[in-house]
Amino acid sequence: MDTDKDMTNGEYEELCADVRVVNEQHIDLFFEDLTKARVSRAKVNQYLGDVEVFLNDYLLRYSIHTMEEGPRMIEDYLGDFFIKKLPWSTPASIKTTAASLKKFYECMLQHGVIPQEDYDFLCGEIRKKQAKWCRLCEEYNTPEKPEIDDPDGPLIFYL
What we know:
Number of strands: 0
Oligomer: single chain
């Protein structure tokens, strides 16, 4: 969505609220499909939580982006934002979130909300880059050990 850089904060928030209403309709459609497919309550909650964060937090964080723009933003989300901004980021959570987003966008495809090429792009990015995102997450979550510059060596405490 093209936004005017001169809009007021109130105007920006109003546009975000409008997008959130549409996002809620998409989430409701996804929920209906999951319920019809008899997906477990725990899995439904996971899928909906992952999708809601992507649509209503990430896509609206710095600029107004619609759900339809999401597939083209998957690398920035899972390869950067998710790793650095979300405290629950782990390689496993990247995989489950990627699966949730694929499932959501498959639903959007089946209902004619997004075109096939956007769904294919999303799946291709996940397939090609998921291992890299998991590696980056592991590196980000594993701080290096601090170097000790003490010429006498490390301190040893005896009890």
